[in-house]
Amino acid sequence: MRLILRERLVPLAVLVGIGGILPITLLLGFGHRMVMFGTPVHFVGVGVSALAAAVVGVRRNDGRVVLIGTGFTVMSALLAIHGLATPGAIIGMNGVISLTGAATLPAGAAVLALSAVPTLRRPRSMHALLALQAFSLVAVVALGVVGMAIPSIVPPVPQPGSSGAIAALVIGVTLFSVLLLRALKTYLLTHRSADLVVVIGIAWLTSALPPALLMNYMELGWWFGHLFELLGIVLVGATVAVDLHRSAQSRSLVGDLRGAELVAEEEAFLGVRVHALTQLLADKDESTEEHTRRVALRAVQVGEELGLAPGRLRALAIGGLLHDIGKLSVPEHILKKPAVLDDEEFAAIKLHPGRGVKLLRELGGFSANIHELVHSHHERLDGKGYPRGLDESRLALDTRVLTVCDVYDALVSPRVYRDAWTHDAAMALLHGETGTAFDGRCVAALERVLSRETQPELSAMPLLRVAAAGA
How far apart are CA 449 and CA 123, in angstroms? Predict the structure, then answer.
């Protein structure tokens, strides 16, 4: 329970607070003050919001991009009509202004939420999505034209605070909550400031819903809502537009970033220091660096299989890539020796976890979870691992995941002094030492991950009871 609070609920509360504290303060403190700004202020303010939404509605030949563009197009069209329908701007009192004002955010959120549906995100044909975009735009424009040409045809619904307004509020908040959770998950994986901006922007858009649906234009909070809407559209739209042109995209509104992508694009997602350290390791011993990359990939896949929180997956990605960084201090003739190590050489190898965590502490900026992964990836549940002889009571699930993935990859990879083990032989060893060396949940999760992939045929080798510590 503490882990769930620390890894999921606390970050959510903090980030929503950053985006929501100012709008909530303004609404509670000043929202019900009576004001009368007049028609020009409303028309210009909504017009700026519509322009902002239209400018950021970029799209390319990608289903999710078309959906994101459609979402901003719908919002910009509704906002534009909302502004044009301001009483006194073109026509007198009408129902279009109420309907478009209430529909803008829920409609946009509904389209944006669809971007996570796999079949829509990667459709066989773009024609259906482009048709949806065209239909949405035509429908909104038709509503505006007909409504302003014949004002009596569109009733002024929903009335502020009515059951219809409350229903729209619930729907809108629900849809934006989906987007918020996706964006939060993405930020916890990437730690990109741009992804944090998206989280805050969605919080602003969400905070624009209550004043739009519960207040009227004579209350200051109603005008605040338009400001929140403008800021939210700019923050979310501009940031997403920039992300669409990156080579390594976060896709924060879609929320489909996987741990494997953190490993594949470690410089973009995990930082230049992690990339620099992996390059140093590659220069020292290319096979060790390739091993760490494969282990990191398997570790985040297993972590996802076990449902680990995004922050822990990020730590696994970094810890997996750097778990053997202490081998920078191991003499090259030992690392590349084409024979089994003698006792003295193996003793030198066993120093690498401690030296690795010492290096990371000296560099600074790496979390305690990453230090622990680097320090403990050769420990065993029965306390017979190294360098500290920790037992299961002191080994977190993250460390157990890394240990299993490290041993598996070491066994199925060829070494200068032996051939690679087969997948079946390696899994037999892991199963045989489950409960003594390895966590059964991690072994089972690794097996499920591997079963979904096509296993290469590796050279057969008799199953030997080698010590996992020697992996």
Answer: 26
- Closest by alpha carbon to 80, among 69, 90, 66, 68? 90
Distance CA(436)–CA(8), nearest Å, equals 31
Query: Which of 156, 139, 169, 142 lies closest to 74 in space, CA to CA?
Result: 139
Amino acid at the residue 458: L
Q: Which two tokens stand for residue 365?
A: 């900026």
Closest CA to 141 of 232, 225, 50, 59: 50
- The answer to whether residues 259 and 313 touch, using CB atoms and an 8 Å cutoff, is yes
Mean pLDDT for each consecutive 10-residue tract of the chain (471 residues)? 49 58 65 52 50 46 68 81 80 83 86 75 66 81 86 82 90 91 92 90 90 84 83 84 85 90 94 95 93 96 96 96 96 86 91 96 93 97 96 96 97 87 95 96 97 56 36 44
Q: At what angle do helices 39-55 and 63-84 cross, to 10 degrees?
A: 170
In DSSP terms, 382 is beta-bridged to: 391
The Cα 178–Cα 358 span in angstroms is: 41
Rounded CA gap, 280 and 207, in Å?
A: 47
Distance CA 206, CA 22 (A): 13
